[in-house]
Design a protein that fits this description.
about 60% helix, elongated, mainly alpha
């Protein structure tokens, strides 16, 4: 399976997307039982969805451009 063998390089600025993506889902999952964050669920879900789509798009674009 060549999909896992393709190597890509990322700049520190490009890691912001994956960090924001992971942070938003961590907050969402971690705050599931807390009433304080209940009002922010829609915002966190939107941030997570947008950053996941954006990150996967960039990852696939990088993989396509760096085929061996």
């Amino acid at each position: 399976m060549n999909f896992f063998k393709i190597k890509t390089s990322w700049s520190n600025a490009e890691f912001i997307l994956i960090k924001l993506c992971m942070a938003s889902i961590y907050i969402l999952v971690g705050s599931y039982f807390h009433d304080f964050f209940r009002n922010y669920y829609p915002v966190l879900i939107v941030i997570f969805a947008v950053t996941v789509i954006w990150f996967v798009y960039q990852w696939l674009k990088k993989m396509k451009s760096q085929k061996p």
